[in-house]
Amino acid sequence: MVKPTLYLGCVLFLSAAVCVSSETSRPFIHAGDVVFMYSANPPSLYDDYQCTVSGWGGRSQSREEQAVKSFQARVEEAQRRGIRYCGSVDFLVDFGGFIDFRPDSFTSAISRDLDGNPLRVPWLWDHTHKGQPAYWFCTNNPEYQQYLRDQAERACLAPIDGLHIDDYSGSSACSAYNGGCFCPYCLEGFRDYLRDQFSAERLKEMGIYDIARFDYAEFLREKGWNAERYKKEHHACPLIGEFQKFQNRQMIKRITDVFEHAEKLRGKPLVRSINSSASGNRELIPFPVIDYFCGEVGHHAAAKQAPMEPIFVYKMVEALGRRQTATASGQDWAWIKANDKPGLVRMWIAQTYAFGSVFMAPHNQWCYTSELGTHWWRGKAEDFAYLYQFVRQHHLLLDDRISLADIALIHSRENHGAIRDAALRMAVANIPFAIVVAGNDELPVAIDPHGISGFAHVFVGDKPLGEPHDSVLKSASVHTSQWHGFDQLPDTVKREVQIDGADRICVSLRYHPQHPDAPIVCHLLNQNYDAEKDTILPKDVKITISKRLLQKTGREPTITEVILHQPKAESVGLPVTQAEESISFEVNELGLWAIVEF
């Protein structure tokens, strides 16, 4: 078992925000960055949006001189504008490139189901290359691993600043939901994994009597399993937990190999990202070897309102000392394209920045439906650029800040659902909270005893955390309770942030943990969205904040004025009303998003 070695206090009110042990200083993404998912066409779009990072910038399509020069020009065009440019590697979608790379042997690298049939990438059903479908190639296959390194090498033919890996999970994802992989390399690797992890006695208890000859596929078939049953009853499959752990470990090895290979070629650390969000347990596993998460977060566009689920993702990445550069899902963008609702997207952008992450500029978006397959939508600069200009204008109020909260939710693999539910309920009710991660054998994270002591209330799920987490919580001077629902929260907690005058106003309080004198920031999100008119209905609101909560920043709440910043508006001062236990201020005609500085 891997012992937790990283200490994440998440929100440490008396010291640092996140304490992550690191031997070297890594590059990172700032909360006030403006990230393009793909390179801009035309490049003047970079200027319109005041872009600072190109996050998913591809690579030279070949090693031919013309292709290399074209890619180098694209990178240098961005860097002349002061933009950090990240190349990218594709673990799945560049199936055609691998067919060309190994035209005589590519079939040997195709992932296989339990019946030995080739597996395809489900969402690329409408893609072919030279008459071949979009096969799901196995990332445990040595020839395919060579192709992944070849992609990284072609990305490094230009002076890139970072590297992104798309569909990073490879065979781990294939095992999790696509019916594989049972190729010879996966079967041999799993056999070696079991031999290393378990004693002969334990293997016999698992039904394995001769590990040297063990074949997982044959083992399952002898127990009556076939490919169809494996997909339908995946979680009931014998040894599936260990098989998934094996594939997860291989995933970490593969992405680490690609990143380190590229960094060796470039001779410096590259900012590392993967196409993922911190939305589930398996998605969290790569965090120690990446610098930020970059990818789709579901926004439920068809609901035509601001979603709460992304807030959970942004809180999770903050808990891990990382950041999400988000976009919406392909289904979300397909809905936006079909219904022409840029105002809904503006709500997504504001929400992401308000909770400490980044929403990538929607200049060229991948859309997907089961009927249309892959298609694209191009956002208009006139609809969005002003919001990103607002971000850059006030980036100092976004950078280096974390959630201001008196409640910690302890997330663990076993309690993921309960903590997610608690987080969403608190987000809806505007109750400030932070998430603290209790790691496991796949997620090397330990609760920081000093950091957890900074919270007045700590909630856990009903599943045991195990050691060393239980001991840390017992020794910390903090009140710990099982989460049973919203009603158990003390009234004082429910009143820490109050909004009068309008419903559907979302509040996010953030502060700089290393600098008590730095401004506290209160984000106000007006989510009164009129879908028919695709606009936000302005509201007059009064915001009341507990002094006790504000004191956790290290500052006394002797505040007489706050400064209101809104897009397309001059900053103005607002008077503060002092009460015995709270302060309050009023905002008239609140639009989409306001940053209140005090």
Structural classification:
alpha/beta
Helical fraction equals 25-40%
Approximate shape: globular
Determine the strand fraction and express it as a percent band.
15-25%
Strand order of the largest sheet: 2-3-4-7-8-9-10-11
Please summarize the sheet with the most strands: 8 strands, parallel
CATH topology of one domain: Immunoglobulin-like
CATH homologous superfamily heading of one domain: Golgi alpha-mannosidase II
- CATH architecture annotation of one domain: Sandwich
User: How far do the termini sit from each other?
Assistant: 47 Å
For the record, the CATH class of one domain is Mainly Beta
Query: In DSSP terms, counting alpha (H) and pi (I) runs of 4 or more, how many helices?
Result: 20
Low-confidence region ranges: 1-24
Radius of gyration, taken over Cα atoms and rounded to an integer in Å: 25 Å
Protein described:
It is built from 20 helices and 30 strands. With 598 residues, the chain is an alpha/beta fold. The N terminus is likely disordered. Among the domains are: 84 residues, Rossmann fold (3-Layer(aba) Sandwich); 103 residues, Immunoglobulin-like (Sandwich). α4 packs parallel to α10, α6 packs across α10 and α14 runs parallel beside α15. It is globular and about 75 Å long. The strands form eight sheets. It has an eight-stranded parallel β-sheet.
